[in-house]
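Fold these two proteins, one after the other.
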Amino acid sequence: MKQSDITALSDEQLCSACSDRNGAMEELLRRHEKLVRRCARSYFLAGADGDDLIQEGMIGLLHAVTHFDPKREASFRTFATACIRHRLISAVRSAGSAKHLPLNDALPLHTFSLDAPPDEGNPPPTLQSPEELLIGREEFAEFQRRLSGVLTPLEQQTLELYLEGLSYLEIAQFLHKSTKSVDNAVQRIRHKIARLQPPASTAKPFANII
């Protein structure tokens, strides 16, 4: 296939042609390199530089190229974005980055932004002491252990991707499921979280995880 013919193909057509070793894969990687760089700018990898993050993002893009299913409802770009972000977040977590904390520390138990305007009619949030934050994290770690014991593999994967900020459509593409299956999994997760809440608790500290 001529180079001019390759560049004229859509992303989805290129994915279908990748198995023929005709330059389609190289064209897809070249075409979406800017997407990788754009995604990588949102993350910080401890002990590494920007090129390391771009390399991780390219691995995610390669995964998208080799695993994209054109029969699914989303575009290749949507699937590629999900794969790139998932790879970057996994790399950041593995490195123990302080900017993007692991799941146990990243959930908004009591978080707020100093840049955000205060809510009208509501008092500003109270700053927690290090001791209070530590207790909150320990409580959540115990809650997460109990939750993991009742989630199915699909529900666990869905929860992790949801907490990473992926949309239902992106999660569906990444897991090769329908958006309805993802929505059903999220609803089951919510019910299980509600059942795990202490019955005497009025604060329900983990009710808004998902």
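Now the second one:
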Amino acid sequence: MKTFNLFLYAFLSLIILSGCEKNEIETIENQELQKSKTIQKLLEIGFSNDEIIDNGKYFLVQDDVVYPYDWAKELNETSGKQRFNGIPISPNNTVIGIYLAQETFHTLSLRRALEEVIWYHNRLNNRTKFYLSGLGPVVISADNSIFPGFCAQASAPRIVNGEGVPGGFININEDYMVERDYTSNDELKLILAHELGHIVGLNHTNQSFGQLIPGTPQSDPGSIMISNNCGVNWNGYTNFDKLALETIYTLPPPEIKRAGPGCSDKLCIWMVGKFFQHDKSIVEVKVPTGQIYRYNISDLVYNIDFQGQEVITLRLKTNNERNQFGRLGYVDVRIINPDNGDQSSFKRVRR
């Protein structure tokens, strides 16, 4: 009986070991298949074999754009038809939290530069908005294992559960930047703006990958997306940087999610929503008796709140508006994006 038990244990162990080996082989084969699919897709959308580097953890393309081995896993055949990194972020995912892992840095302090870049980016007329978050999904951290000579790397957008999501990380080569004294606020802003461009799918403007985004030129020397921009000062977004983002992430009609009275005398109105054309937005206020009053951008205060939501505030300017708001207790407001004439539905504001 003892001999039989020993034989049984040995037989079961052999089965278990064989099963483990089979599973390991299948896992390796699946990983290699996913890598092969990703390489093929990168070749299809315009990269060359020489530009695709396998660093043992992921594919690195054009020196600072990261593609996971399984990047092509959920792609469909229509992806990657414009000159950006292949996948537009789905509308539900274009308000993007940024976590700055400052604890991973020994010398560089990125908070001020990051806040300023986010401020500038959020005032471009496109769907993508950034905000600082303790949760991400984008994490900025120090990584001194980046190839020498490069200041940073960022991951490209990918498909998750059928939706385009932003790239998940930005790695900063802190030791290299400190050694070369690339530490001024303007130098840090350009690095961050460039890598955030990769996070939402923008490609280098001075390299030939992919097709041009409609309306943009073959070359844009001042672009934030010029490669190898270590040690270069920030000069803002060029008109073609703005156009590229506006083309890929076109603003849909504005939406007002919430609105209410403000100021101590309740003669101000705030509106929280999304897809506002911030530098040109028009607000219309309709009083109960039907008259409509128009407020241009010079009458409005525009901000992005800590959750990445857009906020517009105004102060009622005519006696009729103030009297009806105070006496009848409500007005209706809507927002208009004048470039395309899109407008939100009227939202009731009760005093």
